[in-house]
Amino acid sequence: MNTVEWADGKVRLIDQTVLPLEHRIVECASYEEVAEAIRGMKVRGAPAIGITAAYGMALGAAASDTTDPDAFCSQMRQVAEWLRGTRPTAVNLFWATEKMLTVANGAPQRGVAATRAGMLETAHRMSAEDIEANRRMGAYGAELLPDEGTVLTHCNAGALATVAYGTALGVIRAAVERGKKIRVFADETRPFLQGARLTAWEMVSEGIPVTLITDSMAGHFMQRGKIDAAIVGADRIAANGDVANKIGTYSVAVLAKENGIPFYVAAPTSTVDLSIDTGEQIVIEERDPREVLYIGGQRIAPEGVDVANPAFDVTPHRYVTAIITENGIVREPYGEALQRLMKQPRP
Question: How far is 94 from 273, CA to CA, in rounded Å?
Fold first, then answer.
C-alpha cells in the first residue's frame, strides 16, 4: 500500500513508529484520530503529513451534520486549526489545510453536500499529484548524481515520507532505475532514528546497497573521500532558500561544504514558503524529552538531567548546492530562482 490511503471512509496509514520490526496499519475514522497520528509521528515527512491532513479535513467534512453553509465553513475552520496544531514546522500541513479550506469556503455557492464531496475529490487529487511530483523530482535529480558513487542522506525522505516514491530517496531511486550504481550511506538520525529504522528499511527492501552510520560519523567518511554527494528532504524552504529539515541536517550541510561535496535538497513546491523571508522565521518544533531519554523503552540517561529536543534545524542557503523540485532544479540566487519557480505551471 501507499504510505497514506483512503479506504472505506477512513484514512489508512503505515504506522512508522513500529517499523522495521512490525508492519502495522493504522486506520483513522475521524479528524481527531488523524491529528493524533500526525502528532505521534505514526505518519511523518512533510508531504505525507500534508496529504494526511487533507484527508483529515475530508473526514471532518463527512462528520458534519449541518446543512447550513456558514455553519459548515465555521466547522471546517475549526477542523483545520485542530490539525494545524499538531506540528508547527512542516509547511505542507498548512498548505494542505488551506487548499481544503478554499474548497470548503465554496459551500454557500455549491451547497454543503456538493462541497463535502468536492473536498474528498480534492484530497484524492492532491494524493495523486504528490506521487507524480515525486517521480518528476526524481527524474530531475537523478541527473545530478554520479554514474557510480556513494550518496549520504539524513532522516527519511523516501516513500514513507510521501504518499509514495519519495523526495530525496526518490532521486536515488530514479538514478538506480536509470542504471546508475548508487550506494547509500544513511545517518541513523537520532533521536527518532528515521534513518536507521525507515531509510535503511526502504533501501534494503528495494535492494539498493545501504550502509547505516551514526550521525557523528558523517564527517569522518566525508573527510576520507567516501561520500560523493549528500541529499536530504525538507519541511519548509524560506523565500531566500534557507531550508528547515530534520535536526542534524545543518551539520551535514556544513561538513559537505567543508569537504567540497555537493549538498542537494529535494522537496516539492508545496514545501516552499514564500511568505517568510529567511529561515530565522521558521518555528522549530520542540518534542517530548522522552524521545532523547529512552531508546526502545529503556532509559539511557540519569534522572534529573535536562533535555533539549528540537525536531528540526535550519540550513542557510549558502550551504545548499541546488534545490530539486517537481518543476525543475534551482540554484543561487535562490530568492530570484524560487520566485520564478513558484510562478511556473505544473508540467
Answer: 10
